[in-house]
């Protein structure tokens, strides 16, 4: 869990940026959302590429690029962890279900046949919503192997966070 100090480091620039955008819009009589987006873009550009930071005394983009160049950054190239072969298995919603005596699971009022899984075994379900297609990809994993995948209509799926 991040410390309050670390949380403050992240929250302060956002509070500063929000305050600045509100003031700029008020002074310039801007109320249309497209115009506000333009103000936001300009402020982010100024903050990242032109303004000297009060604590570090450096421009953030220059400091960040130097840290990357010197290997002094926590940013790493993304690689899929084993056994996954698709980013959809990492960036997804997850559920677990137990396969019944007929090799089926129930998922949001859908009954899904799950082949090649022993009875009463727990499977991990990876859910990947596709709003454009109005579908949800269902990828079923058992013992670190993808055993079944299908797409179901997005209607009727509810996620509680």
List keywords for this structure.
alpha+beta; four-stranded antiparallel beta sheet; two-stranded antiparallel ribbon
Describe the fold and architecture.
A hairpin with a 4-residue loop joins β4 and β5 (135-142). 5% of the residues are buried. The chain has 161 residues and is of the alpha+beta class. It is built from three helices and six strands, in the order αααββββββ. The two termini are 19 Å apart. The strands form two sheets. It has a four-stranded antiparallel beta sheet, with no helix packed on it. The protein has two domains: 4-69, no CATH class; 87-153, no CATH class. α1 packs across α2 (33-49).
Short characterization:
This protein is of the alpha+beta class and 161 residues long. Helices cover 32% and strands 25% of the residues. The strands form 2 sheets. A 4-stranded antiparallel beta sheet has the order 1-4-5-6, with no helix packed on it.
- Compute the average pLDDT: 89
Secondary structure class reads: alpha+beta
Strand order within the widest beta sheet: 1-4-5-6
In DSSP terms (H or I, runs of 4 or more residues), the helix count works out at: 3
Measured between the Cα atoms of the first and last residue, the distance is 19 Å
Bulk shape: elongated
Report Rg.
24 Å
Portion of residues within helices: 25-40%
The biggest beta sheet is recorded as:
4 strands, antiparallel
Order of helices and strands: HHHEEEEEE
Strand content: 15-25%
Number of strands: 6
What are the low-pLDDT stretches, counting only 5+ consecutive residues below 50?
none
Number of domains: 2
């Amino acid at each position: 869990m991040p410390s309050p100090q670390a949380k403050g480091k992240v929250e302060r620039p956002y509070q500063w940026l929000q305050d600045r955008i509100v003031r700029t819009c008020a002074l310039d009589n801007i109320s249309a959302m497209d115009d506000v987006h333009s103000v936001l873009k300009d402020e982010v550009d100024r903050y990242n590429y032109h303004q000297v930071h009060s604590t570090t005394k450096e421009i953030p983009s220059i400091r960040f690029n130097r840290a990357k160049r010197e290997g002094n950054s926590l940013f790493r190239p993304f690689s899929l962890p084993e056994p996954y072969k698709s980013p959809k298995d990492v960036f997804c919603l997850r559920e677990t279900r137990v396969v019944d005596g007929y090799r089926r699971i129930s998922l949001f009022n859908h009954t899904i046949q799950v082949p090649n899984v022993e009875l009463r075994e727990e499977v991990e379900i990876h859910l990947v919503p596709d709003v454009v297609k109005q579908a949800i990809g269902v990828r079923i994993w058992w013992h670190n192997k993808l055993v079944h995948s299908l797409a179901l209509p997005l209607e009727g799926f509810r996620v509680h966070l």
